[in-house]
Specification:
This protein is mainly β. Helix content is 15%, strand content 53%. It contains two helices and nine strands.
Length: 189
């Protein structure tokens, strides 16, 4: 009888610990998408970037953390056709003027604080690292059983991406590029 009680207590402790421990949901990098939009005085360009890996952490079905790595060499321009400027813009975005992907092949996002807003929506403060520079970003993310979505702006100048910035250069005229670019992220897991 004493052994049965010991086994029952051990099972309860083990089960209780498993329930309280964070559970990771790995992102399906093939189905997840990151869309970007960069704006300039005379228009805008848009495209995609691919995940290298990532996961969200849950505790008692509540989002508590996450981390992601993005393959910066996958920068793709989707609003231009091949032979009509697509390759030139992609090359420029990968150059040291922008993301310097030869040296900085990845960017990362690591959740630092997650606050529930209710109904599957959370406010996240995270460390975003681009070109080896880490700065905090804050955004809302909506989470369902198998997906999560968010949209937020990134100030590229905080990551030493100053090309065409009216904040750093004078007399650019209609060649000014917005300091912020938009990201829309759709995670599938």
């Amino acid at each position: 009888m004493k052994n049965l009680k010991t086994i029952a207590i051990a099972l309860l402790v083990t089960f209780g610990t498993a329930v309280a421990t964070a559970q990771g949901k790995k992102v399906n990098v093939e189905k997840s998408k990151i869309n970007w939009v960069g704006k300039k005085v005379t228009g805008q360009h848009e495209g995609t970037i691919s995940f290298q890996d990532g996961s969200l952490e849950f505790k008692s079905n509540k989002l508590v953390g996450g981390s992601f790595t993005v393959n910066m060499t996958s920068v793709n321009v989707t609003d231009l056709k091949a032979g009509e400027g697509k390759e030139k813009l992609e090359g420029h975005l990968k150059s040291p003027d922008f993301f310097g992907t030869e040296k900085y092949t990845t960017a990362s996002l690591d959740f630092k604080k997650v606050t529930s807003k209710g109904k599957g929506v959370y406010t996240v403060t995270a460390d975003l690292t681009i070109k080896g520079i880490t700065k905090p970003v804050t955004f809302d993310i909506a989470v369902t059983a198998n997906s999560a979505t968010t949209s937020f702006k990134v100030d590229r100048t905080k990551y030493d991406i100053k090309y065409g910035s009216g904040s750093f250069f004078d007399n650019l005229g209609d060649k000014v590029i917005s300091d912020e670019f938009d990201l829309t992220v759709n995670l599938q897991f």
